[in-house]
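Recap from last week: sequence in, structure out.
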Amino acid sequence: MKLLRTFTAIAALIVLIGTLAFLYHHGDMIPHYKTFSGEPASLRSCTIIIEQFNQHGSLGVIQLGLLMLIFNPILRVILSLVSFVHERNWKYVIISGIVASTLLYSLLSSAG
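Predicted structure tokens:
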């Protein structure tokens, strides 16, 4: 599964590049640890994250790398499903199909 390792390494590299760009532009900001503020609403949509990435926004770059890390296990299950179909191992096709559909359902239901 070199593909998945490579995918993870690329995602981590994207997060690192985004972090370095963010620190370059905002490294002098003083964080407020008493008040938690999550991600802005503008970075909670996949399409907006991709737009920010295309505009070289450092937070968009970081978010895209994190999205890639989130999709990595889903990709792993889907590749396993394809592999089991190719091998005609129907028992594991059913199991992988259940896991893939559960992952996709939970991802899509939480996105709305």
